[in-house]
Amino acid sequence: MTRREFMSAATAAPLLRAASRPPVIVPVHQLLDGRVKWRPEQVRYFWSSLWPEAVHDLGRCGIQLQCSPRQGEVFRPPFRPPVITGLDRGVINLVVTDVIPMQWDNGLALGGVTTLYRGYHLCMIALNHAHCHQVPFVSLNTCLHELLHALLHDIFEGRPPGWRGQERELRIDWYATLLWLFHDGAAIRKAAEAYVERLRLAAPTQS
Asked: How far lies 148's CA from each of 76, 91, 152, 154, 199, in Å?
């Protein structure tokens, strides 16, 4: 077996294992901030490049995002946390806006943030700063990065201060790089299965 054949086989093995099992279905509600005056190229970039890349990478490890559009807005009252409308329980609420609210951004020009917001699972993407894969282990797809914070259960804890917070970001970029370049998402899939169960328990009951 040549080196090229060996590398091809090593890359294909995780994909074959993922394909042999039913997909992990993750419900995602997508909200485009209705208060933003969007430029056509921003919206086009999200739908044609940024979002499809994240969906494709997660699909490599058998994670399927079940997406539904929703209407919502991000209100930014002065000196107060943001007020976000249109959110649902029991799903990941992916809110697409222009910039992260100052109370969460702290002037860092973040591309995204993931948090529990009033009991809602929230991934917020700031299109003014979000990007596709750029540099392995350093600069990864913003949507994938934030979704991994949820799927790997970081969403249930506040971001640690100092070096521990940086360590957590590096951990996410490590997993994202393994998925992007080596199609290795076994650990992500396992964590996602447990995360989806927690989402199901948080969903409102039907009367």
From this structure: 26, 14, 6, 8, 15
CB neighbour list of residue 25: distance below 8 Å, 6 or more residues apart: 64, 66, 196
Cβ neighbours of 174 (radius 10 Å): 14
The tens digit of pLDDT for each residue in 118-158 reads 999 999 999 999 999 999 999 999 999 999 999 999 999 98
Residue 93 has phi, psi (to 5 degrees) of -90, 105
Which band of pLDDT confidence, cut at 50, 70 and 90, is reported for residue 3? very low
* Total of domains in the chain: 1
Measure the CA–CA gap between 155 and 29, rounded to whole angstroms.
Answer: 17
Q: Which range has the worst mean pLDDT, 13-22, 98-107, 111-120?
A: 13-22
Please state, in angstroms and rounded to a whole number, the distance separating the CA atoms of residues 144 and 93: 14
The answer to pTM > 0.85 is yes
Tell whether 7 is covered by a domain.
no
CA distance 207 to 204: 9
Domain that holds residue 135: 14-200
**Does residue 40 belong to any structural domain of this protein?**
yes
Tell whether 89 is covered by a domain: yes
29 in helix, strand or coil?
strand
The pLDDT value given to residue 17: 54
Half-sphere exposure of 83 (CA within 13 A, CB side): 6
